[in-house]
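User: Reviewer 2 asked us to show a designed sequence for the structure in our supplementary figure. I'm pasting the structure tokens here. Could you produce the per-position amino acids so we can include them in the response letter?
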């Protein structure tokens, strides 16, 4: 039975849904990108109203992570070079650290894992369409949203989840203590925040190997490219944990047994290459996100 001091899923989502995690300008960008008639000039004029957000977007777009052949010096040029949807992803990514109400060692570990999952997810999606690469990136950064909210609102209970996760999966610990998982929390809250549906779906379904039968049936109905992005996030997160990123020490994980591993058509040689790429990219670019 869940701990009697917990909140129901509905109560937690209602409470977290009141947070303005995404700055007003970033929310406007999300709204504008959904408009097929929006111009680059209009997007640039909105973004330029938030100098801090603009600075973070330019910093990420100029990192080696994006591999630009020339320096991006203005938001307008970033929009032209990267495209509207990529800018939307960068606006969300540049704001997502603010999910955490406080920032101690536990929260830093969550964020480090999110950053590593984002860079690793985008690398794994390298041969897929740009839309898959971008979703793998932003979903990687936000896959821990539900955990962050549970930790924000009920930190003592989430400390128990972390402790019990040393001997079983985190999802199982969450169900035992809260009665629901961070996948459910992240899905419901990001929908309430009005984020694009594909991001909310990626947060809900990225743990492909541990989904309920009902959720697995839902995934089977989705666009295959969308599912590939879930697979990229799942595998990248496990690679990061195997390297000890976001956790006290490297974890021994059977990555080849993951459903995401199979969907991506990986083998031991490709996994070794992707592990090295994630490690190098994280070491080189993690400071960009902090």
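Assistant: Here is a per-position design you can include in the supplement:
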């Amino acid at each position: 039975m869940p701990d009697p001091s917990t909140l129901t899923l509905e109560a937690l989502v209602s409470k977290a849904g009141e947070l303005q995690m995404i700055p007003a300008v970033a929310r406007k960008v999300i709204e504008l990108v959904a408009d097929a008639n929006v111009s680059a000039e209009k997007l640039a004029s909105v973004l330029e109203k938030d100098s801090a957000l603009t600075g973070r977007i330019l910093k990420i777009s100029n990192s080696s992570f994006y591999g630009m052949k020339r320096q991006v010096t203005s938001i307008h040029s970033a929009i032209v070079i990267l495209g509207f949807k990529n800018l939307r992803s960068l606006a969300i990514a540049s704001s997502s650290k603010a999910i955490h109400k406080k920032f101690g060692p536990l929260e830093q570990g969550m964020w480090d894992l999110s950053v590593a999952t984002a860079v690793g997810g985008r690398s794994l999606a390298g041969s897929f369409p740009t839309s898959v690469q971008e979703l793998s990136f932003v979903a990687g950064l936000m896959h821990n949203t539900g955990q962050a909210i549970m930790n924000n609102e009920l930190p003592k209970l989430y400390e128990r989840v972390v402790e019990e996760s040393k001997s079983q999966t985190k999802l199982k610990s969450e169900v035992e203590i809260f009665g629901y998982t961070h996948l459910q929390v992240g899905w419901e809250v990001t929908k309430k925040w009005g984020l694009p549906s594909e991001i909310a779906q990626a947060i809900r379904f990225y743990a492909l190997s541990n989904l309920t039968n009902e959720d697995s049936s839902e995934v089977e109905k989705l666009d295959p490219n969308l599912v590939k992005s879930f697979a990229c996030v799942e595998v990248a997160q496990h690679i990061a944990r195997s390297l000890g990123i976001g956790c006290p020490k490297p974890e021994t994980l059977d990555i080849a047994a993951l459903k995401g591993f199979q969907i991506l058509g990986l083998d031991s040689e490709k996994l070794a290459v992707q592990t090295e790429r994630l490690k190098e990219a994280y070491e080189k670019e993690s400071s960009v996100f902090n």
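For the response letter, you might also mention the following. The chain has two domains: 15-94, 102-290. Residues 105-124 form the longest helix (20 residues).
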